[in-house]
Design goal:
The chain is mainly α. Helices cover 68% and strands 0% of the residues. The longest helix is centred in the last third of the chain and has 49 residues.
């Protein structure tokens, strides 16, 4: 048990890269060893929370895709003018489409209401069945 503790301490002193290298080598040479290391690293929380926050792992994407990332200047005035015009046009089209959908909903509601009123009017115009005309339940 002391050897495992000393091996763990040695790997911890080398850092996360040593753990990952050991896991990869374990998968390459004896896959159950790699799997065991993966499970241990996950269970013992050897994965750092900042492990996937490196320079190339999306930090630029996160910065540029912020709430107002589309409105930031690119430094090229011609492109910025084109982008502003395109975004304005898309917003106008979105507004037109939403108003079109609202008109469709309103028309459908009106049609359903008119159909309901017609059915109601037909029901009121139909004379009620009298007891003499209805069958008496004889079998």
């Amino acid at each position: 048990m002391d050897r495992l503790r000393s091996a763990e301490d040695w790997m911890d002193s080398r850092g996360r890269g040593a753990w990952i290298a050991a896991m990869v080598l374990g998968f390459v040479f004896v896959w159950p060893v790699g799997l065991a290391l993966l499970i241990y690293m996950t269970y013992a929380n050897k994965w750092s929370k900042s492990m996937f926050k490196g320079k190339f792992c999306g930090s630029r994407r996160d910065a540029s895709m912020g709430r107002h990332g589309a409105w930031r200047s690119s430094g090229n005035s011609a492109f910025d003018a084109y982008k502003a015009d395109t975004l304005r046009r898309l917003e106008d089209e979105q507004g037109a489409f939403e108003s079109f959908l609202q008109r469709l909903r309103d028309a459908k509601d009106k049609q359903e209401f008119d159909s309901f009123m017609e059915d109601r009017a037909k029901g009121a115009a139909r004379p009620a069945a009298t007891t003499e005309d209805s069958p008496r339940g004889e079998y």
